[in-house]
Every structure is written in C-alpha cells, then in structure tokens.
Amino acid sequence: MKIYAALTCMAMVMNVCHPYNMNKMCESNGGMCTTKVTLSNRCSRLPYVCEFGRLCCRNESSRKTKRRGSGISVRRLCSKTDRECKNMGGICLAGDSKRCKLGIFEGFCKGSSCKCCIGEKKSCGILPECRLYGGFCIEIKHSKLCKGTVNDKLCDEAGCTCCFPDKKCKCGPSNEVRIIGGTELKTQNKYPWMVRLTMFQDKGTFQCGGTLINDRYVLTAAHCVHDESLSKYTKPRNLKITLADHDQSSTEDDIPGVTRDVAVAAVIPHKKYDDRKFEYDIALLKLKKPLDLLEYKEISAACLPRSASENFAGIKATVIGWGLTDYSDGSSSPDILNIVNVPILEPGCNGYIPDKFKVKEHMLCTGTRAGGKGACLGDSGGPLVVNEGGIYTLVGMPSVVYITGDQCGGPKTADLYTRVSSFLDWISERTRDAEYCS
C-alpha cells in the first residue's frame, strides 16, 4: 500500500497528494477513508489512497457473513438499526435495497450507504390509500416525521397509523376554458398534471391524453398503447410524452426548460385488458428519468382517490384533452387544450349505455339527457377529474366514447370511463419506486 501511494504521488502534479484531494478521490468513487482496524470487518478495500495511512473502503457499515451450507461469503449491509431510526418505527437498510419501497430518510443511520426505511415492518402493513398520498405506516403516532397529519384508518393493523410527512410537494394543484360542447382553456398550464401522449405505430401517428400521478409514472388507457392491428403493445421507444404543453400546434407559448418531451422506459398495461370489451382499460407509463415536482409549478401530479369504494356518482367532473370538437369533421382536433364539465352517473349508468354492453364495477359513466357534451376521439386516456376544495382528484379516464349519428356526446348516451378508484392496489404495487405528493 505504501509503494502504491508513493508511485501515485510521483505520477501526479503538485498538490494532488494533499490529504483533501486524496480523500475526495476515494469518496467520489463510492468509498470512505477509514483505519485498518475497521477494514477487517466493516468494509471492502478499494484501490484509492487516503491521508495518514488510512485505507479507502466501500460500505463502511457492512459485515461479512457466510450462508449456511454454501461456504459463499456475502455482504450484509446495515446489519444494525440505529436507535433514532428504530424509535421512528424504521430499520436501517442500504439506500438501494429493494426492501426500501416506502418512506426512505437519510441522516438517521450510520454509514454513508445506509438509509432509514420507514413502514417496512410486517406488523405494520400499508394500504394503497396511505401510500398513494405520500404517507407510510408506522407504529409510533407521535414520530417527529409526522409533521403533517396522521390517519389511523389507512393501515391494516391495529396500533399502526398512516403518517404524512410535511412534504412541500402537494398533489392535485391547479395554476388558476374544445372537447364536445366545451370551452377553450384560457389559462396556460392550469392543469400541470395533464400530459399529451403520442404513439408512432405502423399505421401512422396516434394521440391520447394521460395524467402524471407521481414523479415517474403517467396513467393512461390501455387501448392508447395497444396496436389492435398487430395485437401487441407499443414499444416504449415508439412513445413520447409531452409535459406542460398548451397549444400543441405552436412553440411560441412553450416555457423554456419546462415544456418538453420525455422518453418512456416501460409500458405496463393491465393483464386483464380486453380490447373487444374495453375491460380493465388502464396502463402505466414509466418515465426514463424521475421528475422534480418542486422545480416548476407547470409540472405537478394529480391526486388519486382516497378509497377504493368511491364512485363519485352525482358529482360534476371535468374532462380535459385535445380530442375532436366535432366528430363529423375528423380534422377538428383543437390546437388549444379544452375542457368540459359533465355529471358522473350512478353505477350501471342509468340505462344510458346499450343493454348489450355490461357496465362493470371498475367503470363509470358521464352523460346528460340533452347531450352535446363529452369526450371524443383523441381524449382517450386523459383525465376526468373532480375538484375537491381546489384540489383535483383523478377519478377516471375516457375509455369508450359512444357516437350517435355524427356526433360525440350524443343525447341519451354516456361516455364510459375506467374508474381509477378500482385500481388503487394495482397502481400502488407497480409504482413502488416512485415518490408521491401528499
């Protein structure tokens, strides 16, 4: 080691052997400068030099153990839980551990690679309603991490409480209005969770809507990413998601650094999706890179329903999209984002849907007797939202648009939507690597 250090110093320019520079080289390569005593049982040696005869090693808090019967040496990270982390109801694990799926906090565990994982105890199982609002389940109600509110009904074991930290990231905001019978949206980027989805398929380019629900997933309709002619799903490389757009035909209103296209890493459709009956018409699109939802007010996430039992019947909802404003004219797709307010019908859709089509529990409908208002082609997969005290909750996505004669939103017909509250478990399970806003 002394020879290596000497040769290294001779080969470098003046001042490179300064202790600060040597330590920095070790740390920038994922290591930590430590003593020989620590080396024997707490770290793996790296080929970098430290000051004063210290050695550079990785995973300072690791311990080498042997699997029974295998004779293979393995490294177990963060084998001890610090008291401060334990007192908050957590355990210390490696920051990249697959077990760290819920609340992850720094500064409460020893070792640079260790994080305090909250909500991982088996006795404190988390329900989707807690997690999808940025919370986690712990056994200690008065934890200092619970700077926001707590809710004892959102965890599946007695004695556990859903802890909402005091996060700055809030879901469902608005920044201040064609869809059939709707109005042009005057305020640019009023709905910062609205995204445009473009698919490049063999038969041309298609467009749908989508909703940003956390820092790295967009929720849309499965039929938007399904190529019926080929009976397969569109590959991620053939998808494009546009954020913070308003006038899709112009770049003059784009916000530099904000309005942009982002790449898709994975397409996650529901396995039960039926392209003939449009059942389970839901899909998640994973972004290649997570977004910083605190960076720009024009990009944020919508809230999801708090309970799987919510159907929002009788409530006025808002459909948002760039879909056709006149079905009789296939070129009537608007440049400006449009909205329209429609009432959500009772489960079963009050006879608005043809009898041959069975409305399932995971669907909901909107419609009016007079007609003239509703979603149309191009609005599929976009948001149907309910305004709850200024906070917008995503309740549905346009799935099947019934066309009467030459118009969408015809009289005595209803549009069929995927009911988001029916899929909270499904969404939660597949977005464990995402950060939700509270």
From TrEMBL:
Pfam family, one: Trypsin
UniProt keyword terms in alphabetical order: Disulfide bond, Glycoprotein, Hydrolase, Membrane, Protease, Serine protease, Signal, Transmembrane
Gene Ontology MF, one: serine-type endopeptidase activity
Domain Peptidase S1: 179-432
InterPro entries noted in UniProt: Peptidase_S1_PA, Peptidase_S1_PA_chymotrypsin, Peptidase_S1A, Trypsin_dom, TRYPSIN_HIS, TRYPSIN_SER
Coiled coil regions in record: none
Gene3D superfamilies xref list: Trypsin-like serine proteases
Entry EC no(s): 3.4.21.106
A GO BP entry: proteolysis
Protein name per the record: Transmembrane protease serine 6
Family: Belongs to the peptidase S1 family. CLIP subfamily.
Organism field: Halocaridina rubra (Hawaiian red shrimp)
